[in-house]
Amino acid sequence: MSLPAAYGAEAFNPVPESENRIHSDEVAREYGFRGGLVPGVVVSAYLLHPAAVAWGRRFVERGQAHVVVRSPVYDGERFRVEVETAGDDRFDARLVDERGTECAAAEVSLPGSAAGAAPEPPKRRGDRVISRDAVRPRASRKVMEQLRETGLAALRARWSGNAEITTYLRDATAMAPVYREQNLATPAFVLGLTNWVLAGNVAMSPWLHLETDSRFFRAIAPDTELVVEAAVADLFERKGHEFVDLDVAVFDTADDTAMASARLRAIYELRAR
């Protein structure tokens, strides 16, 4: 069995036309960035790539990761993922850009081995589902407090070639074999569901995905119909930014089996420019 190893690649922004205009050059520059930001879920996938390569389907079906995005990653720029304290069931990693800036870091493991007991999968609540014609309120502290009390609507999704994010590298053949050979949902898509369920309930732009503490329970095969449930865990303000912590669970609609869970931390309202 191989150990997770370092690697380098070119950063890729697969959603420059996203509703979240922080991924566009124009709006990102208005907020002081050099250009459109590579999505946080794609940056997360870069850090989890060594696990998927070394551990394969074991990671897809029971991996755990805590990822923090600290600094922007830009489309077309080179990066390197450095792997530290690598073992048979855990490692630490950091993503460094071509300027030497540490942009993100992760702690990755395989629970159920020496790293600790496997977590209990979440249970589906049966939340109402977002309607396609729903009018979303603009995200604000008042609106988010209301959602904490009333609950969020669930999101329907499907893993397929038509998903919003299907690859985390510009060259999809360079992804980990477990994803490209078996067409399984990548971490960029699975963690992307945390973004999309939040954005399906409130209108936000621009906003920032900062952190996820995630667990995978089952591989998501092509054309799997999913339902994503979420609840507001915390709201707070820091340096003029408004933050939300969101607990998210992903289920297979066929049998309500838990596929993944995550706690997302995001800035849903940036301070005034």
Secondary-structure class: alpha+beta
Total number of helices: 6
Distance between the termini: 50 Å
Strand order of the largest sheet: 1-3-4-5-2-7-10-9-8-6
Question: Which topology does CATH recognise?
Answer: Thiol Ester Dehydrase, Chain A
Number of domains: 1
Number of strands: 10
Helix content range of the residues, please?
Answer: 10-25%
Quaternary organisation of the protein chains: single chain
Explain what you see:
This protein is of the alpha+beta class and 273 residues long. 21% of the residues lie in helices and 32% in strands. It has a single domain (7-116, 123-269), classed as Hotdog Thioesterase (Thiol Ester Dehydrase, Chain A, Roll), CATH 3.10.129.10. It has helices at 25-30, 40-55, 57-62, 141-150, 177-180, 187-201, and strands at 7-10, 64-69, 78-84, 90-97, 102-109, 155-159, 208-216, 224-238, 241-252, 258-269. Strands 1-3-4-5-2-7-10-9-8-6 form a ten-stranded antiparallel β-sheet. Helix 2 packs antiparallel against helix 6. The radius of gyration is 18 Å and the shape is globular. It starts with 6 loop residues before the first strand and ends with a strand.
